């Protein structure tokens, strides 16, 4: 190899698709082992193996695809390895018709970049331009995107740019990919220190590749609060510039969605007014308010939630903690949001997510603890609100399989540390160690695979989800702004109305009377809807057309 400007080295060896290669680096004293290319696009033998020159050819047939903007969409988050028995992209393709019939418009893939071993949530990825071979690799992902587009479904990828996984990360041998500091999962990615231009380009080029070469419609950016970037132009703002450029040159809209626990409206704020201009962000506060109210759990970060007043406040303001004191954090948290200028569709809401299930000690789902009526009540709240709704795989039929945390690191010491870390984390929350499944055992992964055989209760839940998502479209419940949403409540019930349609819900085990009546559109239980009032049974709800 020969040295070039900017610290880069180049080789004159001709690249041939299928060719294996790696790099041995000299540190002034010794040559290193052979390691993969930081920009590898294919790792057929895993994160420690040689890289391979990819064949970029693929016969796309999605020429009629015009893309999807976020407003009006219904997202479906899934983990490729546990969504189907096959645990592959091909397995997901087999379920596209099912998802479309359900009412989903966009599938959101948990991270698919390479990780150590053969089973992982994906947040331990280390090679950000490649695809995990066990799922089907680069070709398999393109097949899925192509098939989804031809079925009328968009594809969003979950990408992790805030840390590198703990095994198989050789990037630090090539340059300053990280800098001093730490995230909950590893070193800080170098976005602002010496040599950071190349690291930012590493991320930009990955995003461009997913959008342009793979035809992906959107990217969900993991835990953006851990992207340490104090520079004048934040990475997220630059990614918005990049997305806008790709939209302009391809004519197809793309979407950037952030996950953050900071309750910061700047993520989706207009760039002209100091925001980052992202298309959407996940909203945990609405999940927390709804979960605590139905389940009764109020530990840890649920401690400030649990009443109809809190749910009503959160619905109207999006963030419950908005420059208010958080008991869990022991400080003031969040920032107020002007809901008159930020469309409701920018906020992604849900009854649960991979985090809210998998970060419980046993990975138990809400459907494993709640009655069918309680499950459908939560879904009805989310789908009747004007935010952008998201489902987590299996919730639509009340899955009885857990979604636990699982890994398959090849380093025994790393497996031990992961296991002990999980046990210590849950011990502080009062869980018995015997209840926590071993994340390194294959049985933990296999138990987390969805069971696609439904009993009668699950069939009823699935049908309710289909009806609710259909009514969301037919009743035009995804109104643009929250300012027209009227919310009322008392200790046990809550109502919100969209001018001509009202949603009423009972968050208690006893019947309640709500002072609104009209024409019943849909319910899952057996309320009594009169002209001026409605009697809701336990955990019941009703969608009502107003006179």
CATH class of the domain at 487-545: Mainly Beta
> Which percent band covers the strand fraction?
15-25%
Shape: globular
Q: What is the rounded distance between the termini?
A: 77 Å
Helix/strand structural class: alpha/beta
Number of strands: 24
The CATH architecture of the domain at 487-545 can be named as Sandwich
Going across the biggest sheet, name each strand in turn: 5-6-7-10-11-12-15-16
Main location: cytoplasm
Family: Belongs to the glycosyl hydrolase 13 family.
Subcellular location: Cytoplasm
EC number: 3.2.1.141
SSE layout and pairing:
Layout (H helix, E strand, L loop, with lengths): L1 E2 L5 E2 L9 E2 L29 E2 L22 E4 L1 H4 L5 H5 L2 H7 L3 E4 L27 H14 L3 E6 L18 E6 L2 E4 L6 H17 L5 E4 L13 H16 L4 E4 L21 E3 L1 H12 L12 H10 L6 E3 L4 E3 L13 E4 L3 H5 L13 H13 L3 E5 L19 H16 L14 H6 L8 H19 L11 E4 L3 E5 L3 E6 L5 E3 L4 E4 L5 E2 L4 E3 L4 E5 L2
Parallel strand pairs: 5-6, 5-16, 6-7, 7-10, 10-11, 11-12, 12-15, 15-16
Antiparallel strand pairs: 1-2, 3-4, 8-9, 13-14, 17-18, 18-19, 19-24, 20-23, 21-24, 22-23
